[in-house]
Specification:
The protein is an all-alpha fold and 191 residues long. The chain has nine helices and no strands. It folds into two domains: 42 residues, Single alpha-helices involved in coiled-coils or other helix-helix interfaces; 119 residues, AhpD-like. 34% of the residues are buried.
Length: 191
């Protein structure tokens, strides 16, 4: 059984040991670049196929080319996670917003009440849409999509916003249901 103090979740699902070479290399890169292995990765590492599926989708949505900046995608992650009250993602992605923006107050506002943040019209519309994807996706209409187009977002951008918001709705639910704990390092980052 995994030591509860070191477990990334409340579930007894220890990481594969030893990790496959490619997974170990990925974890080593995380350690080098981030100074830690995010607990969300450790949590998935009990099943390497599930870990690979999760990281492939995350990397495609959050790191691949998009007209949405990395900061904007992290802002979506935080707004969705805040609505869902996902402790892990509010902490982890709030830290990413602080880091990418260079503005600790922005990261705090995103977690607590994104509407008080100093945002441009594009960001406000994008986050309003992400909020609706989270709270009432079946009620999204052409009027909602037109509001995004009115601030210069393309149909491809709308696709990306919807997918990032949907991904975090899924991952928030898994993190909350499994008692996933944020790495302690996130709390002090970019402050």
């Amino acid at each position: 059984m995994t030591d509860p103090a070191d477990a990334p979740t409340a579930l007894d699902l220890p990481m594969v040991d030893p990790l496959p070479e490619a997974t170990q290399k990925y974890f080593d890169i995380c350690q080098d670049k981030l100074g830690m292995i995010p607990n969300v990765l450790r949590a998935h590492a009990f099943d390497i196929d599930k870990l690979n599926a999760f990281t492939a989708l995350y990397n495609e949505l959050m790191l691949a080319d998009s007209a949405l900046s990395k900061l904007e995608r992290e802002m979506i992650a935080v707004v969705v996670s805040s609505i869902n009250r996902c402790w892990y993602c509010q902490v982890a992605h709030g830290a990413a917003v602080r880091q990418l923006s260079g503005n600790p107050a922005l990261g705090e506002a995103m977690v607590m009440n994104w509407r008080v943040a100093d945002l441009n019209a594009r960001q406000h519309a994008m986050l309003l849409f992400a909020e609706k994807v989270t709270t009432a996706s079946a009620q999204i209409t052409e009027e909602d999509r037109d509001a995004l187009r009115a601030v210069g977002l393309t149909d491809r951008d709308i696709w990306d916003i919807a997918n990032v918001a949907a991904f975090f709705n899924m991952s928030n639910r898994v993190a909350s249901a499994t008692g996933m704990q944020p790495n302690a390092e996130y709390h002090a980052q970019a402050r």
